[in-house]
Amino acid sequence: MLDYYNNLISISKDIVKLNISSFFYSLFFDRAIWTLFLLEKGLDGLQVGLAESLLHISIVLFEVPTGIIADIYGRKISLIISRIISIIYAVGLMSVNNIWSIYFIFILFGLGSTFSSGSDTALLYDSIKGNKKEKDKQFTKINGYYGAFITAGLTLGMFCGGFLQSVSWNTVYLCIAVVQVISIIPLINMTDNSGLVKAKQGKNQDFSFLVCLKNLVISNLIVFKNRLFFTLVIGIVIFTATINTLYLFIPIWFKEQGFDEIIISQIFTLDSIIGIIAYSCAYKLEKRVNIYTLLIILPLISLIALLLLPLSNSLSPILFIIINNLAILFYPLSSALINKLIKSEERATILSSVSFLSSIIIAIQFPTIGFLTKYIDTGFVLSGLSIFCLCSIILLWQTNRKGILNYNEKRYS
Predict the structure, then answer these.
(1) How confident is the model at residue 33 (pLDDT cuts 50, 70, 90)?
(2) How many domains does the chain fold into?
(3) Which residues contact 370 (CB under 8 A, 6 or more apart)?
């Protein structure tokens, strides 16, 4: 990994800056324990689920408009805005005193996450030097290491989170605010020519929000009218959204099993350490196994592990780590495949649309799980997420290598 970052400097200093910024941005010390914070504030499982659902409804509402803003004004500006809103999120939770304030802060945080969603990977892809073929060749590897760097930040954040919470919840959120400020600094000096305002400077072309919205609709219709590509995207987002839901909700189950905040943080820390290795190895796995086969095998193994999840409390942390790291392997592989099928000028917008679909699924799953846990054991409810894995496998099975390649050739011919 050290060799990668030495070589990275010769590839693009902007990629190095983006990695550093994203490392600090990922230091959310409440990552593994925020649901426990809400429980301590007096919320029950359903209300926790509603808070998370409101966050993702916010993402659904703002994902596409903020993707357009990134395409107009540049991805660097979009990323800076996301960091500023994260600071507001942390400061807000330090002074929150009622459920409605919590809901508002989560809605605001959802807005902030949309400014980062899609913009970081789009900026990463466009910062790679070379033509499209060369970028495609390098992207899986660079994106895998980028994910590993983010996971390293998450690991450090979760490791420290439990100890910071032992001091106070305010200490947790004060530290989050500080690292978010630091994450802005590397972005300030980044070069970003992705915005249409810059791209069309000096040209008599209309790049207003409404025109870009029209282009958004046209570009998404072109992409999503292709049944094969649409099936691929839906299969991918169902699996990633489902594992995200598991990740967000499982701390409550660990708490029900008697684990305290420090132990839960350490479980997530171990998960993230393994995740760093998984991210770093994703591109190597792609070289040895057909990517289309991997996109089916990884959800299949996750499905089996989910079914086993409630059968043994002692093994549940191990099964969770297995499931989550299969998703970590899945993400850079699926992201690389999608990036190969879309054009640069549409990348942030379409990736935001993919995140939009993921947020819809999570917004439905999370409150549903919160409601069911009031009547059914949490472990069995989480095991029920295997149904979504099965749906993902069926959809991904319908896509095939020849069909995807034909789509790609038609798209760029």
Answers:
(1) confident
(2) 1
(3) 44, 45, 46, 47, 48, 49, 50, 249
